[in-house]
Amino acid sequence: MSHKPGRVNNLLTCFSASSSIKRKRCVAKTLNVRRMFFFFLGFSYIAASYVKYLEAAGARVVPIRINRTYEEYVKIFNSINGLLLPGGDVDLQKSEFSRVSKIFYDLAIKANDALDYFPIWGTCQGFQQLTVLTSGKNLLTLTDTKAVALPLAFVPAAQNSRLFKNFPKDLLQSLSEENITSNFHSWSLSVQNYSRNAKLKRFYKVLSTNTDGRREFISTMEAYRYPFYAVQWHPEKSPFEWIDKPGMTHTPSAIKASFYTAIFFVSEAMKNQHQFPNISEEEKALIYNFAPVYKGLGSIFVQNYYFD
User: In terms of domain of life, where is this protein from (predicted)?
Assistant: First the structure.
């Protein structure tokens, strides 16, 4: 998806409060598990739809800012419970987005290897960034998928995948038969390029594919050994974006799919005990410290958060 020049996405993560913080803040309400996500949308803005997407599943959002030091990112990583890499239009190998994504990707690999469960979710550009981080190459190819809603062509592995195995049968049927996944990308990972790259084949299990009529590309995948998930489509758009373009869909099934993906990822993020050092630092990090700006229905995004 294209964005306005001069703007870069920021990063997004998910946080679930530790028991010590819950005792201080949720004395009588044991169900109020506090969760937080950071999202990396680019240089100095974040589309509010990603924030709403995570909040709708019970998460709280913290923007990961770019141009920070490695030590600052390590501190953030140890304070959060998951990472969402959102859509955008930046260089996947030379941008600040890619640099910071790699830092968190490497930290997540190390943490999971040490049995510290840390999930990553990539949407659109986030999907593409994960393929570059894993393979060390940009293997994307042009596809005619700039603004189109498609059904998912599930592969047999999807049925027992972590991501889809608990989806209701009627929702899986809708996802496979109805045009309810919004695609706004010019570049895709073709099935052919995936199959030819040993690193990608070893790392990711393909869950669904799509085609633009000429090239078959991967639309959903999850890692074998790590809680990493990637969708080339946009589950956050159906409930929260209202641009007047082909590819946008607001059917009940599309909205249900959005919430099921968000709830799944937030539940994954609840599996670790990362936390901020104290309540004060936590509150300063929250997206609540920033106000979304209404851009109008003619904009790419209805609302954005802007940063310096």
Answer: Eukaryota
